[in-house]
Amino acid sequence: MRAQRRNSREKILAAAADVARESGPGSLSLDAVASRAGVSKGGLLYNFPTKAKLMQGLVEGYLRDFEQALETANSNDDGKNPLAVYIRLSADDCEEKRPSASWIFSAIAEDPDFMTPIKTFKRQLFERLKGETSDLKSLLVCYLAIEGLRSMNLFDSDVLSKDERELLVASLLEIASSPDAHQASGTQS
Amino acid sequence: MRAQRRNSREKILAAAADVARESGPGSLSLDAVASRAGVSKGGLLYNFPTKAKLMQGLVEGYLRDFEQALETANSNDDGKNPLAVYIRLSADDCEEKRPSASWIFSAIAEDPDFMTPIKTFKRQLFERLKGETSDLKSLLVCYLAIEGLRSMNLFDSDVLSKDERELLVASLLEIASSPDAHQASGTQS
DNA sequence: TTTACTGTACCGTCTGGACGGTCTTGTCAA
DNA sequence: TTGACAAGACCGTCCAGACGGTACAGTAAA
Questions:
Q1: Is the C-beta of residue A8 closer than 7 Å to nucleic acid chain C?
Q2: What is the pLDDT of residue A126?
């Protein structure tokens, strides 16, 4: 029963995310994470020698997962429209009722520098999209709107109804696919 | 030198925001705020009996200021286009290099419930805009994009260049000034 | 034997907050 | 005008508790 071997890391990471979501970002203590993960505090510190390392693990896992999801989504819908793929993927992410990354608040509270990897990731992503999208205006509007959706999900303050969210995503996809006139007035949805 | 009388509250609130921005949201301790505000800890606790009350004061002040700014902006540009007014106001807010509300992270870390007033405020704002905007699609896209801009500013991860931001705002204003104005029956309450 | 833990005991630091004291200002009777 | 007194605004100290982290002995699988 004892030695869980190997996958303790993942369990700890998941437990940390759970604790942050359920007990609030300020209550992410090592003790709480350890007991939630079914691991002793010693065991936790064995896998992550400091709290900062734990946070770092959270960030890296998040970025890795996201990049991977984006890659597979892009290869499935190959070459057609990377912006549209990004919109769909993000919209699906934000569909989840439970904010997937509320541990970010814990990380920021711990040390704002934990955001830098995320920032650079986002910057690279944006630059890539800029290179792959013909119309800058469309990109800006869509990217920012998705960022807004993400923000809402993160803060757990979903103002939109299901219909509205679907309409939004449809509008964004429309804007993303029509380079030039995004004055979508005449065409009914 | 001692008795600052009366405006200590404002000074403390400003100091708290400064500390949160400069020392990181996790380092917002009462001692730090007190020393920053040029007030003793006892004096701080006199004005705000608990840390929670301090946070509450921060939230209320923020909401009050924002509502006021929105009101004056709307009365200056009367009746024309509330969505456009909101866009312009928010864009100006986000122009500031220093995130105006990074104390929010402190508040969330302290207790996620501090977000509820902000959430309800945003919900009301959105509903109001919905009542005042003819085209739902335009509203959704613009509102979310602004939310994205806010998010970026808050996280201090500005991906956009100055030109890009201006182009974005221009695009949003263009979208906001939707061509069909018939649907606006009884916009006033 | 090594790896991967468990469990316990412990330490130093930091933090919110309670408490009692102090200075300032306003009020009002004499 | 003055002196007594109350209330308001603020200071400085102290403390219990929580937290991150260390140290170390034990244990079970590979």
A1: yes
A2: 97
